[in-house]
Amino acid sequence: MNQRTKRRPPRQGAAVPSTIWVPFLLGLMAYARSLANGFVWDDINFIVENPLAHDLGGLGTALARGYGWVPGTATGGDSSLYFRPVIILVNTLQWVSGGGAPWIFHLLNILAHAAASALLAGLVLSLGLGAGAALLAGAVFAVHPAYSEAVLWISGRTDLFAAAFGLAALLLIARGDRLPGRLRGGWAAGALLLLALLSKESAVAVVLVAPLVALACDRNRLGSHLTSIGLAVGLYLALRVATLGGLGSAGLPDRGPLGERVLQAGALTATYLARLVFPWPSRTDPVPMVERGSLSHPLALLGLGILIGLAICAGLALRRLIGRASVSGRSTSRFLDHPAAAIGLGLFLLGLAPVLQIIPTGEVYGERFLYLPAAGAMLAIATLLGPTLSAPRAQNLLLALVLPFAALLQLRVADWQSDLTLFTRSVQVAPESARARANLGSALMKVGRASEAERHLARAVELDGGRDPQKRAQFGSLLVNLGRVDEGVTHLEAAHRQGLRSTTLLKNLGIGWTRQGRGAEASAVLTEALGRSPEDPGLLEALAMARRKAGAFEEAAGLFERAIARDPARKTAYLNLISIRANELRDPATATAWCDRFLSRFADAPEATQVRSMRAALAGQG
Questions:
Q1: Residue pLDDT, tens place only, 544-563
Q2: Which of the 8 DSSP states describes residue 338?
Q3: Which domains does the chain show, CATH number per domain?
């Protein structure tokens, strides 16, 4: 009998359906309520306010840039570091097909997570760990709240998609000889690995683990698998270099000297492991300790010790995997002797490595970064428990873990309903976080709660010490909108001197200078902003006000008309245009015509009475 045939336990076939479908259904049910959630945080910038995400005609331009580049921004942020065309493509297709409804995006995230949970269970089963271990790993992964950010946040789908495609590739490799001929050679797995890499760079962890799965399950076709993996990596690198002009290593943040970064890696390791064990409360901001590792933080040294210990275990398990024939060989109850130990530990450590800051990356901390490493952790735990995990014991353990995790998860679903709910929770959890305060202030501004927003934005600037120009710009913009123009302009000018050149800053600085009577200076910054977003009606109207203040009345009137053409619902543009035509340009006929257009569109508006009076006065002049 072929050795491959021995790998299938006699009674395992009957267990496969429930082992796979239970995690899938749990993943669906656990996140079903998130269908009612909206766009949150970066979703607004990357999707809602990004014109390239609304039209298939803009796909070419979007795909030719790094992920995070939005027209009208000064630099595109750190988009040159990120190459994620799968996410750009999916976001645009979903916006076009769903008319911009957020539930369409949330539905795909839920389905991807449910699929990832089922794929993890299938991988555990294919590695010979038994139905009980597979069911436990997949089901706990489906409801664990520690990395729910990757599912609940639409922009967090980068980690979600990378993991789902990666786990699908590993499962194809693990099932090896059970697949149809065209899939057996590994080309389908290579294509899935490419999709994972094109979803997020961290999928390199799956690429590095894939040969271990081939060693464990399909060693006879190892060469074929290595070829397909190599082709996937080569094609990814070629596409990345062609698009970004390089690998995107420029612009990495300064995280201090190597020794400090190593300690920071220990602090982050301890923090992420604590999230897995105690997944509450949720955090969008890192704990202060992980921002800079230090010998004064014992947890950093503890985490570093754990990281080194896990790396040693992974090395020992890898050595034993290389010396084994395959997973279908003799069974073992020793953790490091089982091939799945090397795969699980490898996936956890390699998945976590990109965010440990030994090599600096853009973000210090994010719960979504745990998504892929958590799959490796579940696989390692399943390997550890597998030999003693009978079906009844697995079910009891499942109930003990799934119920509390699912309950905690529902609280997180509620937190992610909107910017306001998310950042209110963030401030409750981390009241001394400048970023959380600034985000809450911004969310309060959007819903018109300016006085509350002022308190949080002022505190954010205070906590930050004025170092971050973005926070100063937010605070200054609010003060200008509240009528405290001089105070607001002071902050906006400081942010401008610090190098911030975003369209939003330029617009608000221009509005502030206009209100101070500095029309020429306002015109300069607003013209710069309009050069990036020439069709923005708000910018057109702001520049029209500046040109009016500078005495360029005819130019101002033309800009007001362009603003109305782009957005016919801009009442203030109509009112200013009527005023400038009637008063500065002494053109009663044209002013009367614009009065008529205003009254035909806004007959019941509070300003209609004023416009009718002005029209009557203009008629008297005629």
A1: 999 999 999 999 999 999 99
A2: S
A3: 16-414 (no CATH), 528-622 (1.25.40.10)
